[in-house]
Amino acid sequence: MSVLASPKSHKDRDFTQVQVINRAASILRAIRISGGLTLSQLAREVGLARTTVYRIVSTLESEGLLTTQTPDGKIQLGIELIPLGAAVRTDVRRELRPYLEELSLTLDETVDLAILDKDHVLFLDQIVKLHRLHAVSGVGLEFPLHCTANGKALLSTFTYDEFRRVIPDRLQKFTPNTISTRDQLSSELETVRQEGIAYDREEHTQGICAVGAVVYAPTDTLVAISIPVPSVRFYGNEGKLASKLLQICQMINARYQP
């Protein structure tokens, strides 16, 4: 008598499909953060068998989402992600600008919108308040993660392995206040996670401070909002800045967080 295997249920097939999507997302995320990995490095990073990673990478490459045709042989993001990334950034700016404008109007201060770009923070949008003393970061410019409020806010969402891969043991000092070691930064990020707010106390530029927090954008993209303020208007006022920022972030998350 033969025993026939029962066909997979719809539930089983759905679970398998979701699992594949999760694995593909993990692979894309690892490549984005690292800037490029070999197949073996990628398999270790995402905790999957090399053969499994190879199959997923091959499929993603056939769709132009990854490429293995690189000078150093490392797997990198493909050109089909470029228009997708541009669309995401456009949508994020358009959807969140009213919130930025409201926050800027409430505090009468400049407000920034930024996103993670490999091992830097990239500024996407800015509402500028033209005081005699004001902070202007520059849309399209990149800044370090370890010494900016929005950078620290984004870092607070990293896993331990992601954090260690992106942040070196020794960190570049820009001012006397800049955190200079990974261990010091890791300790501060614990506070950021608990309070939901990150601070830059003249750590990137002397005379400029900021508060920053992470929000979930309408495209499920993690972004950060920050309020850069000249130090003369920051100290003694940081509690109010943080409170107003968190209020706006809660409004955004209530609407968009999955």
- Identify low-pLDDT runs: 1-6
Radius of gyration (CA) equals: 21 Å
**Overall 3D form:** globular
Q: What is the correct CATH architecture of the largest domain?
A: 2-Layer Sandwich
- Strand order in the largest sheet: 5-4-3-8-7-6
If you consult CATH, what is the topology of the largest domain? Beta-Lactamase
Ends distance = 50 Å
Q: What's the order of the H and E elements? A: HHHEEHEEEHHHEEEHH
Describe the largest sheet.
6 strands, antiparallel
Give the proportion of residues in helices: 40-55%
| Main structural class | alpha+beta
CATH class of the largest domain: Alpha Beta
CATH H-level superfamily of the largest domain: GAF domain
Number of strands: 8
Average pLDDT, all residues: 86
Describe this structure in words.
The protein is α+β, with helices and mostly antiparallel strands and 258 residues long. It has helices spanning 10-34, 39-46, 50-62, 81-107, 149-155, 160-166, 182-195, 231-234, 238-256, and strands spanning 66-67, 76-77, 111-117, 120-127, 142-144, 198-201, 208-216, 222-230. Helices cover 48% and strands 17% of the residues. Strand 6 (198-201) and strand 7 form a beta hairpin. The radius of gyration is 21 Å and the shape is globular. It starts with 9 loop residues before the first helix and ends with a helix.
